[in-house]
Design goal:
With about 240 residues, this protein is of the alpha/beta class. It has 2 domains: about 1-155, SPOUT methyltransferase, trefoil knot domain (Alpha/beta knot); about 170-235, Trp Operon Repressor, Chain A, CATH 1.10.1270. Helix content is about 30%, strand content about 20%. The protein is built from 8 helices and 9 strands. The chain has helices at about 15-20, 20-30, 65-75, 95-100, 120-125, 140-155, 200-220, 220-230; strands spanning about 1-10, 30-40, 50-55, 65, 85-95, 105-110, 130, 185, 190. It has a 5-stranded parallel sheet, sandwiched between helices. A two-stranded antiparallel sheet has the order 3-4. Helix 4 links the parallel strand 5 and strand 6. Helix 7 crosses helix 8 (about 220-230). It is elongated and about 70 Å long. The two termini are about 20 Å apart. Bound molecules: 6-(benzylamino)pyridine-3-carboxamide.
């Protein structure tokens, strides 16, 4: 069982995403446990539940204060060994191989970044890795935390059924998937490529591979360069 503890100032954002579909089933099957913690519950300032403050040296915006984060992590962690992730646009790029690596851990804490970021002492003393889910800025680290939870959970053995199987999906082998079709074979005059109706599995496999290559060349040539260099998705070990 992999346990996620997510620290956020918007705890209500999580239930609609995490308590549906495959993530809901994964929790019911005890493949993962997901606990959401309201950072404000750990504020020393019991009256205003303050968790942010102005940056020393001046400048715009607010920073997440060290006190609530230090106390939240200490309380949540207990005596367990945990891996602490902080989501921010300044982190290492998240990838499929990154997700695979995280499935090997037992306890993950994810701090959802906010405002202009965190006090550096949190990064220095509490954070094991800073992750970015892409080169864009969001209103908070909540969506990145959900995204990481989703990408990691679906890789845990027994979470996906046969229907949603892991084999031959996009990113396996650094190729995007080519076109796919379902019934009818002729939809309002728009026909499915005849090779797919041939029943010749070998020819179909070759056609799919060539389509995948063409598509990857067109939309993600960077993936092919990595493939040719023999590196995995993010250049890290899976
Ligand atoms: N690309 C990401 C993560 C968080 C975020 C925030 C500093 C802004 C994008 C720290 C500035 C956190 C990402 C919150 N936006 N926004 O992973």
């Amino acid at each position: 069982m992999l346990r996620f503890d997510i620290i956020t100032i918007f705890p209500d954002m999580f239930a609609p995403i995490l308590n549906e579909s495959i993530l809901k089933r994964a929790q019911e099957k005890k493949k993962v446990a997901i606990h959401i913690h309201d950072l404000r519950d750990y504020a020393d300032d019991k009256k205003h539940r303050k968790v942010d403050d102005r940056p020393f040296g001046g400048g715009p915006g607010m920073l997440m204060m060290p006190q609530p984060l230090f106390d939240a992590i200490k309380a949540i962690k207990g005596r367990r060994k945990v891996h602490v992730i902080y989501t921010s646009p300044a982190g290492k790029p998240f990838s499929q191989n990154h997700a695979k690596r995280l499935t090997r851990l037992k306890n993950l804490i994810i701090i959802c970044g906010h405002y202009e970021g965190i006090d550096e002492r949190v990064r220095e003393h509490l954070v094991d890795e800073e992750i970015s889910v892409g080169d864009y800025v969001l209103t908070g680290g909540e969506l990145p935390a959900m995204l990481i939870t989703d990408a990691v959970t679906r890789l845990i053995p027994g979470v996906l059924g046969k229907k949603e199987s892991l084999v031959s999906e996009s990113f396996e082998g650094n190729l995007l998937e080519g076109p796919q079709y379902t019934r009818p074979a002729n939809f309002r005059g728009k026909k499915v490529p005849p090779v797919l109706l041939s029943g010749n599995h070998k020819t179909i496999e070759i056609w799919r591979k060539s389509q995948a290559l063409t598509k990857t060349k067109k939309v993600r040539p960077d993936l092919l360069e990595k493939k040719n260099k023999g590196a995995s998705n993010d250049g890290n070990e899976s």
